[in-house]
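Why does residue order matter? Because the sequence determines the fold. Keep that principle in mind as you read this record.
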Amino acid sequence: MLLLAANAALAVHAGWAVWHTLRVRFERDVARIVFNDNSEALEQVVLESGLSLDSLRGSLSATAAPATDTPYLVISVADRRLWYKQGDSVLFTAPVATGSGKHLVIKGANKVLRFETPRGRLEVQRLDSAPAWIPPDWHYQEQANKRRLGLVQLVRGKPLVLKDGSQITVRGNDVVRVTAGGEVVPLSASDGREIVADGRIVIPPFGTNQRRYGDVLGSFRLYLGDGYGIHGTNNPASIGQAVSHGCVRMRNEDIARLYHTVGLGTPVYIY
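Structure:
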């Protein structure tokens, strides 16, 4: 009996240890979303949490020199310029925007985020057409700080009751306002035009259409893993500046040219 009890206790402890490990890894991967301007951030976290090593760290530790016969990308963070090269020949070059280096203090979490473009060796893992951006929670805090507004998280199944008697809730995949008289009013959201109610920015749940911005990343993206990418922009005036949250932005015509030229597995050297 004592042996069975001991085995049961060990099993419980082992189960807790596994759960704790997965939770830590999941939180680590969610933290990576801070650097991602990409639509698959949440999907990537779910797939990788607890199932893979830190692929970004592994990629950055690689030091292999570019093969002379294989095209590759080089990005200078300081010069804010990209080169597509083969050996010593430049096949294409264009200006880019890179990480701002700014800090954001996450209230209540005792955490400071810094928006930097990673340096090292990565590679093109996926080619995305018409990518969408799923804003992470820090985006809403950043917007609230800029506009001096409060924040409130909307949870499925828990309507947000407003001062005028109306409610903000989730119906299907949409965030809607239900008036005191029962009328359902669809709400819209975009970058810089988030849902605001009673002086607070509303953070929509993941999976809702209001948590999906379709015009931020331009027409194409070269996905580099762990939330980083080279993509277009809806703000061409930002090219040549240090303004992104970590990704590399290009003019839409430039990323379109790369999208139709660069292959999967192409090395990307960022310095």
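Residues 33-134+214-270 form a domain with the L,D-transpeptidase catalytic domain-like fold (CATH 2.40.440.10).
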